[in-house]
Amino acid sequence: MYSTDDLEYQPLPLPDRVQLEPPESLAQARGFRDYMRRRHSVREYSDRPVAEEVIAACIEAAGTAPSGANHQPWHFVAISDPAVKARIRKAAEDEERSFYAGGAGDEWLRALEPIGTGVSKPHLEVAPWLIVVFAQRWGVTHEGARYKNYYVPESVGIATGLLIAAIHHAGLVCLEHTPNPMKFLPELCGRPEHEKAVMIIPVGYPADDATVPAVAKIKKPLTEIMSVMKG
Questions:
Q1: Quick one: pLDDT band at residue 183, thresholds 50, 70, 90?
Q2: Structural domain boundaries, residue 84
Q3: Number of structural domains, the chain?
Q4: SS3 sequence of the chain
Q5: Is residue 86 part of a domain?
Q6: pLDDT digits over 142-152, tens only?
Q7: Does the pLDDT value for residue 4 go beyond 80?
């Protein structure tokens, strides 16, 4: 993380070694692949509570992500307050009305039809937790001095991916909700001007009657997402 101290490069012996022999490595990679195939973005939630300690552990996992210059340009606001969740839902639905009333182009709306999304966002209230992901466009020292962050979108994207994987690993479901713009969120969450909200992630248990869009199970085959260049 950023420091005003005059730090110098100081190598440490690799603290943790988790490497596996080739057969077990392949088995673990395939096992994780198969486990992540069971992850689903869910819009129907149970109101069953989730302990704050579980959410904290998932966010701690996200905080282990690599980042540009190790500045860790992210902040996560975990919200269980029903009144705050209701305000977020109302503000998000107001923005979605504009989106579906013409803010989005016809092509975008056609692309969303198989997903089944719409203006109504009850999951923003029903899910026991909302995690709002903020990207720190620049940093500020304790003395109030501004400093530059590097590769902010890439760093926050990696951290958010780890967060989603951690939520799945905890036996919970979530949804990647990205209303645009989200200018209401920094003030609502008490965050400073240099932080930009990039995602709202409802977290909890799926409702008994939870569904997912059929098209969500259609993934590109390996031949379309991987190229190999052998020496």
A1: confident
A2: 44-224
A3: 1
A4: CCCCCCCCCCCCCCCCCCCCCHHHHHHHHHHHHHHHCCCCECCCECCCCCCHHHHHHHHHHHCCCCCECCCCCEEEEEECCHHHHHHHHHHHHHHHHHHHHHHCCHHHHHHHHHHCCCCCCCHHHHCCEEEEEEEECEEECCCCCEEECECHHHHHHHHHHHHHHHHHHCCCEECCECCCCCCHHHHHHCCCCCEEEEEEEEEECECCCCCCCHHHHCCCCHHHHCCCCCC
A5: yes
A6: 888 999 999 99
A7: no
